[in-house]
Amino acid sequence: MNLKIKIINIKNRFRELLKYKIFRLAVLLHLFYFVLALILTLVFFRDRNDFLVYYKVSEVVLNDINNLYNPPPPIEYRWPFRYFPLSVIFFIPFYLVGFDLGFILFNLSNFILNILICIILYKIILLVRNEDQEKDDKRVITYISIFLMGSPHIFNYILGQINLYVTLFILLSLYIILKYEDIKWQLIAGLLLGISISIKPITLLLIPFLIVFNYDVERKKYTFMLTKTTVRIIGVILPISLNILVFLIYPELLKDFISINFTGEDAIDINHSFSLTKIIENFLFFIGITEEKLLNFHILIFLFVLIIFGGIGFFVYLVKRKTGDDLIHGYLFGILIM
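The structure assignment produced for this chain is given below.
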């Protein structure tokens, strides 16, 4: 009975949202992105998308996991697979139904994820907005509508990227931390962030912002909250430890993983990305810096972005008076570096 009531409430809420012109436009435009992406990829870009890499990765793992990062001929990845071994679990169900249907279902799951992300964003905004701000939802709906109309969505759909899974787990983690104080919820938040790291390892950059402390303005003193911080970190470590176990069982995988991401010739990959590190590398390549030279500076570029933006983000997180949105700023800086 409760489920029926919730479904009715969701329908009624959706009808209310459709009264806003900008939301109607956002929904129609997003549906257009979705349909256009299916047509473009299945007709024109069948061999030029991320989903094809995930598809082939699933095939390799089901036959011999040792070849995960170095597929045997005739299998060849268009772009290197850089993620942890257990992230392949997300892709195997789509591989089992074939490329065409798998791509459609994968993008359908991305479409559903976008809906869930909008809901979580809405709830986060309600949690952190100030009491003196307007209480109606008009501005919030405008923000959500702008998100739905964003051009990166069409790239996500055309390429069949995994970013929305990562985004969902990050936002869920953030929402739980902002909403609940109980230790069990801190553990769950850490687990969700750990899952996002298992999907995309660069999410590790968000871990420093899990450190919990309070700042006493009058006494100008920080109080470190060991229990909460420890529980969150344990939550993060649990999913990652499963990947470490896989590396221990298959040591060649760890060697290949390090080579692909840091030391090998595939560590530099010139492709579409919104991360600052990748944007800098793409720009340097555009102005004439060769991939060989970029490989030499790859770690330095990453460290530069990490120190500058990560340092600024963590400094703001440390000195900013606790208002409920400081963690959001920390997550934002972490995502920028990613």
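Interim note for the steering committee: The chain has a mean pLDDT of 80. The chain is about 70% helix and 0% strand.
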